[in-house]
Structure formats: C-alpha cells, structure tokens
Design goal:
2 domains; 12 strands; Rossmann fold; 237 residues; five-stranded parallel sheet; alpha/beta; Arc Repressor Mutant, subunit A
Length: 237
C-alpha cells in the first residue's frame, strides 16, 4: 500500500511565461520557481492567450514575436476582455516606438532582450507589489469584511476565522484571482474538480451557495459572488 501523499503546499503567485525561445522559457521557469513563484509557460500566442484566460495568472511575461498570434495581439485581446493582469513585455524589439506601442496597449513594463535575470525578477516583484495592497504581502485578497490568505489557505470574516472545505477554498481562489471576469460553470467545474470529474454544473451552484452563506452579509443578495444569468459567476471585490 502506497503511503499517503503529503499535503499540497500553499499557493504562490502565478506567473505565466509566453515565449517561443525554449532556452529562455526554461531559464525563466527555473529562476522564477526558485524565487517562490508558481510558473506556467506557453510557446505560441494562441496557447498563451488560452492559458492567460484559464489560469488567471498574477503576472504575464510576454514575448512579442510569437508564432500564431503576435504578442501585442495577445495583450490587446486580454485588455479588451477586461483582464487586468500585470504584463511584463520581454522582447527583442527595443526601438522606442515598439516600447511606446506596447505600453499604450496596456503593458505595465517593457524589457528588451538580452536581459539580466536578476533585473527581470526584481521587476516582476515590483509589479506584484502593485497588485497586492501595501502591508498585505503577496497573498491576501480582501472584499467586504472578508480576508482570504491565499498562501496560508485561511479565511476570516470581520476578524473571525471561517471554516471552508478544501474544495470551497479552491473555488474561492479561482474566483478571486480573476476579479470582474465572468466564468462559466463548466470552466469552474474543470478548474476546481478536474476535467474527468463526472458531476454536473449543479455542483458549482451548490458550492457557491455555501460560500455565500459563509461570506456574504446577505447571501440572498450577494455583493461579491455574483450570478451572471445564462453565463456563470463573477467575483466583484
């Protein structure tokens, strides 16, 4: 009989790297993971856009000259959808006009290749500090009277601990990592329970009802865990 698996480590900030250069991707993955980040990667624009939509990363490191879909097209599509993820453009296109175009399309920072990994890590940390309110080191999301510590997997309401089941915590995390974004029941079911789960979308409804009872001041009129009729759910901080 195999020994039980150890518990999963608490979640860290998610970084998505989209670059078609395998050596750059590997180097960034190794260095950012060693710095404590949860790292994902894609090698072309279409895959990068798809992962940005489904993973809800905390930071996107984006090359511009990508096969399939140009990096600026990826950036423009995300911003048009209301995605506010900080974007660090990493590109061999170093002309001032290229930088200006990227920043005007919604990039938060712009680095040219070749680059120093220490500088890139420092810039990533700076962008993530902007994402998290001052004094709440990298892992606390607040809404109403609720504080959700993503790293410690703990929730309080008006300063009092709230017990959530592991799946309730998983569902809440997926929602709060994408504020303002509508997520379908099928997407939530796949991301929280896995694509092989044999339950129905009604499972998501039941868990949302439980979360509202525990976290919303008026569960029947939720202010943060919102139903979008005919589509799914949206988190409003």
């Amino acid at each position: 009989m195999n020994p039980p698996l150890p518990p999963s480590p608490p979640p860290h900030d998610r970084v998505l790297i989209v670059d078609d250069d395998a050596s750059i991707r590997l180097g960034l993955e190794i260095n950012l993971r060693s710095a404590g980040y949860e790292v994902y990667s894609a090698s072309d624009g279409h895959a990068g856009l798809r992962l940005a939509r489904t993973l809800a990363p905390d930071l996107l490191v984006l090359d511009l000259r990508l096969p399939g879909l140009h990096g600026l097209e990826v950036l423009a599509a995300l911003r048009a959808e209301g995605c506010t993820v900080p974007v660090l453009v990493l590109s061999a296109l170093g002309a001032e006009a290229d930088k200006v175009r990227g920043l005007r399309l919604g990039a938060d920072d712009y680095m040219t290749k070749p680059f120093g990994i220490q500088e890139l890590t420092a810039r990533a940390e700076a962008l993530l500090r902007r994402l998290h309110p001052a004094g709440r080191a990298g892992g606390v999301r607040s809404f109403g009277e609720v504080e959700f510590d993503l790293r410690g997997r703990t929730v309080t309401r008006a300063g009092q601990p709230v017990h959530l089941t592991p799946k309730e915590l998983d569902l809440l995390e997926v929602l709060v990592r994408s504020p303002g974004r509508v997520q379908t029941r099928d997407d939530l079911l796949a991301r929280v329970w896995g694509r092989d789960y044999e339950g129905t979308a009604r499972t998501v409804d039941n868990f949302l009802t439980a979360l509202r009872r525990k976290l919303e001041p008026r569960p029947e009129e939720p202010a943060h865990l919102i139903t979008v009729r005919g589509k799914g759910y949206r988190f409003d901080p």
